[in-house]
Amino acid sequence: MRILVVEDELDLQEAIAEGLRIVGYAVDVCSNGEVAYELAYVENYDLIILDLNLPKMDGLKVLEKIREEKEELKVLILSARSSVSDKVKGLDIGANDYLTKPFDFAELEARIRNLLRRKFIQENNLLACGDVKIDLLKRIAFVDEIELILTKKEFVLLEYLLMNQERVVSQEELIDHIWDSNADSFSGAIRVHIATLRKKLKALLDYDPIRTKIGEGYHIVKNDGDA
Quick check: 63 and 93 in contact, CB under 8 A? Predict the structure, then answer.
């Protein structure tokens, strides 16, 4: 999943971004409201962490403009403004959640997981396709009852394919949602990670659940007989 962190306190911005990268998210950062709006408009983020006290454009104005263009984009306000009126205003304008500073990173991470899960109705916090499953709370992948040991990129690739298993996902979309803005779209990174993920899944399933549609992209199937 790809996240934009909008925070003008650079030490805090770096700490949040690094913490999120450690747990597997692709993260871009910026420190003013105008750039935040431009990035939100041109890039495909799954979630934005938005400070309110920003130079050039206030965070609430950024949120208003985002909502004019992208109603479904998840926005979590992270701000020192702690009054009830500020929280109500932010939520009324269109924020999906509001967390005040100072905060605990574990709570921020939990709120992010919760917001990203809301796109998908899952029982017991599981994503599943046949015997391939991901526990969204524990961040563990497994085949049947056997834990699948994956790298961070392999895990988020599998997570994204499971979240979108009803359709073919293009390489460009995977780059948009799994890699940050420094990714080289012409590199072989996607193919390399897909290949290693396939190898690990096939070792436990005895078939390859990831299908390639030439010129279109990838999708995941339940069994060897699926198209």
Answer: yes
What is the 3-state secondary structure of 36-79?
A: HHHHHHHCCCCEEEECCCCCCCCHHHHHHHHHHHCCCCEEEEEE
DSSP string covering 135-159: ETTTTEEEETTEEE---HHHHHHHH
Which residue in 23, 178, 46, 27 sits closest to 109, CA to CA?
23
Please report the pLDDT score of residue 121 as a whole number: 46
227 domain residue, yes or no = no
- Pairing label, strands 2-6, 140-143: unpaired
| CATH (domain of 212) | 1.10.10.10
Q: Of the residues 63, 90, 117, which one is the last residue of a structural domain? A: 117
Q: What pTM was estimated for this model as a whole?
A: 0.66
Q: How far apart are CA 186 and CA 200, in angstroms?
A: 25
Q: How many domains, the chain?
A: 2
| DSSP annotation of 169 | B
> Which of 39-43, 136-140, 186-190 is predicted with the least confidence, judged by mean pLDDT?
186-190
DSSP 181-205: TT--TTSSHHHHHHHHHHHHHHHHH
What sign for the dihedral angle of Cα 59, 172, 2, 159? positive
* Residue of 50, 103, 91, 44 lying closest to 69 (CA atoms): 44
Q: What is the mean pLDDT of residues 15-35?
A: 94
Query: Collapsing DSSP states into helix, strand and coil, what is residue 120?
Result: coil
Query: Cα torsion for 92, 96, 100, 102, to the nearest 10°?
Result: -170
